[in-house]
Design a protein that fits this description.
Elements lengths: L4 E6 L18 H4 L2 H4 L2 H6 L1 H17 L4 H8 L5 E6 L5 H5 L4 E3 L2 E8 L5 E3 L17 E5 L9 H10 L2 E5 L20 E6 L10 E4 L2 H15 L1
The structure holds ligand BV8.
Length: 228
């Protein structure tokens, strides 16, 4: 029998127990930084050093972090399902846990991007400094999608969710669009689950498993494995 397809839509909550700050929880990044000073193209134009320092700090945190039981449970699910992870996260913890199909719709902090050609460069753990230029002579920027910029791979994400047998939303407040609109895309007969610590409203048709991802995800994967 063909393996079932599973699409995972993840956010910062899946990396919280790896020690990486989320955005909108108490003490989250947006409690300490203004989005408009560090996560918009205008901010980068106005004060590139502040923006570079913000992402240099977060990149070093990512390099120090390790995948947690939630990332590992999702990687292990590939034994029984065709799994694709569509993540808002700019960390590489899904990949480092062993997930083989990961789509970063908001970019990847371990890479730099030319703002002229869009060419990507692996930073190999290095910071991006003011004056670091792309071959075209423009200041390098983090390969991260800022507010007001189009996100990556959205059409592909819609198609994947619309075709999936199982849709799993993990560790996201579903605040940011257009990513959050993906919860409206599953087939009527798809099995849909939401695993998160807290949410304003549970999307229609989703089975809500409230709690830490490192606890709830392994439990859910064990349940689903019986149905594979
Ligand atoms: C765009 C940068 C087109 C990278 C980020 C409607 C349609 C289109 C656009 C909009 C729209 N409405 C508004 C907009 C504009 C805007 C937007 O969505 N604003 C919001 C705030 C209202 N969207 C955009 O600008 C997007 N661009 O649409 O372009 C366009 C073009 C021109 C003009 C107009 C439109 C760009 C969006 C990308 C922005 N970049 N980040 C970075 O620095 O990382 S978004 C940022 O938020 C991160 O990427 C993050 O991943 C994302 C979502 O946050 P979450 O991952 O959900 O994290 P959060 O802290 O919110 O929640 C954590 C959750 O985890 C909570 O539920 C918590 O309970 C849970 N949790 C915590 N611990 C645990 C846990 N769960 C389980 N276990 C735990 N241990």
């Amino acid at each position: 029998m063909a393996r079932k397809s599973m699409v995972v839509l993840s956010g910062a909550g899946v990396s919280a127990e790896s020690g990486l700050a989320t955005f909108r929880d108490n003490g989250g990044l947006w409690d300490n930084y203004s989005v408009y000073e560090v996560a918009t193209p205008e901010a980068f134009h106005k004060n590139p050093k502040l923006v570079l320092d913000f992402y240099n700090f977060r990149r070093q945190e990512v390099l120090k972090a390790l995948p947690n039981l939630a990332h590992q449970a999702l990687a292990a699910a590939e034994e029984d399902f065709d799994v694709t992870i569509v993540t808002q996260n700019v960390d590489d913890l899904h990949e480092r846990a062993g997930s083989s199909q990961v789509i970063h719709v908001h970019g990847l902090i371990t890479q730099a991007r030319s703002s002229v050609s869009g060419e990507l460069f692996d930073l190999k753990g290095q910071d991006i400094q003011l004056g670091d230029q792309c071959p075209e002579g423009a200041q390098l920027r983090p390969h991260v999608v800022w507010f007001g910029e189009y996100i990556n791979h959205m059409d592909e994400a819609v198609e994947l969710v619309a075709a999936a047998d199982i849709v799993l939303v993990v560790g996201t407040s579903l605040t940011v669009y257009p990513f959050a609109s993906l919860v409206d895309c599953p087939r009527p007969d798809a099995q849909c689950y939401l695993v998160t610590q807290d949410i304003d409203a549970v999307p229609s048709g989703f089975d809500y498993r409230q709690g830490p991802a490192s606890v709830e995800l392994p439990k859910l994967m064990h349940e689903l494995k019986q149905l594979a």
